[in-house]
Write a structure and sequence with these properties.
The complex is a heterodimer of chains A (163) and B (332).
Chain A lengths: L1 H20 L3 H21 L3 H25 L4 H10 L2 H24 L12 H8 L4 H22 L4
Helix pairs in contact in A: 1-2, 2-3
Chain B lengths: L6 H38 L15 H11 L10 H19 L16 H22 L3 H32 L4 H6 L11 H14 L11 H4 L9 H26 L14 H22 L5 H30 L4
Helix pairs in contact in B: 1-9, 1-10, 3-4, 3-9, 4-5, 5-7, 5-11, 7-9, 9-10
Classes of the chains: A mainly alpha (163), B mainly alpha (332).
């Protein structure tokens, strides 16, 4: 089981790096899909099959479809790839890389030092997720639904035809 | 001589054996379905259909396969190589994987997954990439138009496909397909979940991109849509994947709404596998009949119908089911 975790994590990290470094937008999106699937595999291993399945359905299956949809419309040719390559100079990625490196060092320090509890000893299935959503987190769920409603109204307003 | 066969090892062998048998039966049935479909359509339209190769044209599929294998497997120079090659594999892989969660009989099935139904949704969601990648990588206007239609259509039907099945889940209290079949021991879901069945049937046809939801490939105006640049076995994989989809969605409808392997009353002397096969066969025939009988609507009509008719219908169905289940549950 542990080896499966390390394989999935390695795939996730590599795929995410390729999302940033790839110059072809569709290939970058493909890497992002692979990365999301790898994260879903980690959820399955941690005993949260419901979260893993939702990760696949919502992120990999629905949101990324819209991303790919939009990128498909952009008529990307070799010119765009060259442009992307020109943009990806050390000047642009050094500072964000340093910031990410600081975060990584901080996380490693906390992991070494910390008193954390091991995950993966309880199975969190759909029923438990539902109980916590409609129990302790009810207010958050309602706030999120208000936010979504506002987004829906805004989208309707923007998409409305004048006639 | 056989003392190395421990019970665990025997169980592993049996599980792998089951998986291989189910895989082979599905793929072979799907391949043969192309012939069955042509024959059935021909009979309904008062023609002979394929009748040259073998008795009643039975070996037509063998001839077709030889043709497909020996055709040049051509990748256009202007195509995006990676996604062009990946697309047929996604088409076939995702559909075959969703077949794995379907319980065939009480003892047969590949995986008994707690989240079986969600797994099916996930695979159906990923299957869209095959169409979109094929459409985009081909670098062809017609295929891109097909891919756009596929994406737009998917976004509209996936929402109500999930909601259509939630009524079934509420009644069974589980995402596990075995539990869902067991919950139908007394009454098949088709009666309490009739609207769920109607909407899922529509969504199921859309999942397989078959007529009347084949706007992504519409021959008349898009000249085959997303797989226009494909040839040889890569095209064959799209073709077989469509038929595997038909088998899978038929089996899924049987599992969710028609009691899976459960027999009709007083007919339980017939083995359960026969029940499952006959019910699935019935829905496969229905798929073919729908293709032969209906015309193709415009794709904005399809989207409008999905959002304005099917989505509200499934929401009301879910709310009513939940209310009835809540009323019938004894207070804890």
């Amino acid at each position: 089981m542990e080896i499966a975790f390390y394989i999935a994590s390695a795939i996730a990290i590599y795929a995410t790096l390729r999302v940033v470094t790839n110059t072809n937008p569709v290939h970058a999106l493909l890497s992002l899909i692979v990365s999301l699937l790898a994260v879903a595999a980690i959820f399955f291993m941690l005993g949260a099959p419901f979260a893993g399945a939702l990760e696949i359905i919502v992120y990999a299956g629905a949101i990324m479809v819209l991303f790919v949809f939009v990128v498909m419309m952009l008529n990307i040719g070799p010119a765009i790839v060259m442009q992307e390559r020109a943009w990806l100079t050390p000047k642009t990625w050094v500072v964000p890389a340093i910031l990410a490196g600081v975060l990584l060092a901080e996380m490693l320090y906390l992991l070494r030092d910390g008193t954390w509890s091991q995950a993966g000893h309880t199975l969190v299935d759909a029923k438990q997720v539902g109980i916590s959503l409609f129990g302790p987190y009810l207010l958050v769920v309602e706030l999120a639904s208000l936010l979504l409603l506002a987004a829906l109204v805004a989208a309707y307003h923007l998409g409305k035809r004048e006639d | 001589m056989f003392d190395w066969v421990t019970p665990e090892l025997a169980e592993i062998f049996f599980t792998v054996f089951q998986a291989v048998v189910i895989l082979l039966v599905t793929v072979l049935l799907a391949a043969y379905l192309s012939l069955i479909e042509r024959k059935l359509l021909a009979w309904w339209q008062d023609r002979y259909g394929p009748n040259r190769v073998g008795p009643y044209g039975m070996f037509q599929i063998v001839a077709d396969m030889f043709k497909m294998f020996f055709k040049e497997d051509w990748t256009p120079p202007f195509a995006d190589k990676l996604t062009f090659r990946l697309a047929p594999a996604i088409a076939m892989g995702t559909i075959l994987l969703s077949m794995a969660v379907i319980p065939v009989t009480a003892t047969w099935g590949v995986i008994d997954l707690n989240i079986g139904l969600l797994f099916f949704f996930g695979m159906a969601g990923l299957a869209v990439y095959s169409v979109m990648f094929a459409a985009w990588s081909s670098n062809n206007k017609y295929s891109l138009l097909g891919g756009l239609r596929a994406a737009a259509q998917t976004v509209s039907y996936e929402v109500f496909m999930g909601l259509a099945l939630m009524g079934v889940v509420v009644q069974a209290g589980s995402f596990n397909l075995r539990d869902i079949v067991e919950a139908q021991s007394n009454l098949w879901n088709i009666i309490p979940q009739f609207f769920g069945f109607c909407t899922f049937m529509i969504a199921g046809i859309a999942v397989t991109h078959r007529h009347p939801f084949d706007q992504p490939e519409a021959e008349q105006e898009l000249a085959d849509g997303y797989h226009i640049e494909y040839s040889g076995m890569k095209w064959g994989m799209f073709f077989v994947a469509e038929y595997i989809g038909v088998v899978m969605v038929s089996a899924m409808i049987v599992t969710l709404f028609f009691g899976g392997w459960k027999p009709l009353p007083y007919l339980d002397f017939i083995p359960s596998f026969v029940w499952f096969a006959v019910k699935t066969g019935f829905f496969i025939m229905l798929f073919v009949l729908v293709r032969g009988a209906l015309m193709r609507p415009r794709y904005d009509h399809v989207m409008k119908f999905s959002w304005l008719v099917c989505l509200p219908l499934t929401l009301v169905n879910l709310l009513v089911t939940a209310a009835v289940v809540l009323l019938n549950t004894p207070a804890a």
